[in-house]
TrEMBL record:
<dbReference type="Pfam" id="PF00293">
    <property type="entry name" value="NUDIX"/>
</dbReference>
<dbReference type="InterPro" id="IPR020476">
    <property type="entry name" value="Nudix_hydrolase"/>
</dbReference>
<dbReference type="InterPro" id="IPR015797">
    <property type="entry name" value="NUDIX_hydrolase-like_dom_sf"/>
</dbReference>
<dbReference type="InterPro" id="IPR000086">
    <property type="entry name" value="NUDIX_hydrolase_dom"/>
</dbReference>
<keyword id="KW-0378">Hydrolase</keyword>
<dbReference type="InterPro" id="IPR020084">
    <property type="entry name" value="NUDIX_hydrolase_CS"/>
</dbReference>
<comment type="similarity">
    <text>Belongs to the Nudix hydrolase family.</text>
</comment>
<feature type="domain" description="Nudix hydrolase">
    <location>
        <begin position="18"/>
        <end position="153"/>
    </location>
</feature>
<protein>
    <submittedName>
        <fullName>NUDIX domain-containing protein</fullName>
    </submittedName>
</protein>
Length: 171
């Protein structure tokens, strides 16, 4: 397997702080009362959105489509941007300083595709399912919980993307 962009960059700079971009997708069920979420391989608690880090030369929209296919086996297309969040972590689970700029997109299944193809990759994603949004599902980290809340409030009220900055009250 080819080494990913982050692993290649970390091999060059070690644990020094770096900025990475990620993209995630939100896929609603037909009734618009549940979101496709994943049980992650790197966390014992809560859910995450399908998504991941951009590779060099890849747009955020291409990344979310690729990550959805890799993690859920579904082909999706981007509908709209939901928002952007930035999170600074002085020491992530690998011991590295990292700032992540994450862009969220609402996605829909590609025409002719059905959710019956849904299948977790078994590595990064241990399980994937549509999870009801009431009551609110528990996300794997506080930043993802805050993002979920924005998706269910701000994005449901209007079409404008949001911006969540570090150091603000909700982080």
């Amino acid at each position: 397997m080819e080494e990913n962009y982050i692993a290649r960059m970390r091999a060059k700079v070690g644990h020094e702080g770096m900025i990475f971009n990620s993209a995630f997708g939100v896929l609603w069920n037909e009734a618009h009362d549940a979101i496709l979420l994943e049980k992650r391989g790197d966390s014992k608690i809560g859910y995450g959105f399908p998504g991941g880090f951009l590779e060099y030369g890849e747009s955020p929209m291409q990344a979310v489509v690729r990550e959805f296919k890799e993690e859920t086996n579904l082909d999706v297309e981007v509908v709209r941007m939901l928002g952007m969040a930035t999170h600074i972590n002085p020491k992530n689970s690998w011991g590295d300083a990292q700032e992540t700029i994450s862009m969220g997109f609402e996605v829909k299944l590609v025409e002719g595709q059905t959710a019956e193809k849904l299948k977790a990759d078994g590595d990064e994603t241990l399980a994937v399912s549509f999870v009801p949004v009431n009551p609110r599902p528990t996300m794997f980290v506080p930043a993802a919980q805050n993002t979920l809340e924005r998706i269910l409030t701000v994005n449901e009220e209007n079409e404008q993307p949001w911006l969540r900055e570090p150091g603000k009250k909700e982080d």
